[in-house]
Here is the input.
Amino acid sequence: MNVAAQMTQRVARLALPNKVKAEKYMTVHLVKLSVGTESFADLAEWQQARLLQARAAGKPQELMHVTRHAPKRAPELLDGGSIYWVVKGFVIARQKLLDFRALEIDGKAHCGIVYDSVLVPVRSQPRRAFQGWRYLDAADAPPDMAAGSGHEELPEHLRQELRALGLL
Here is the structure.
């Protein structure tokens, strides 16, 4: 059995089978560092550029993070979970998780974490640097920022200072 087939079987085992979908899971989320990103606007621009590149190449317009291992808690993640993005030491945004895909890259199994294109700002929360991704319990997830709260109009350097003070 090739590597892609093995990863496909693993992801299939982790996905929600039809007969189990009625069963309720405790939602969990993923936290991931957005390396090289400077701000919420920078993250949004980068993602829009990726979608435009996919469109120009005739590929599906979806956002996907490729990782070496499939999350073991896939049913809990797909039950309303989101990927929360850490930028410059703070969780600042989230996107709804949509799917996990088995991929083969250079003969090795990988997992594609597919997430929604809608980037939702959240109340910032400090987070130390880490490698890979981490699970985040729903109770510990930062709340979404209310639309029209005014945070969008603030210059990024001011937002970063307010985040550092715990005011945003």
The chain is about 25% helix and 30% strand. The mean pLDDT is 83. The chain has one domain: 3-164. The radius of gyration is 17 Å.
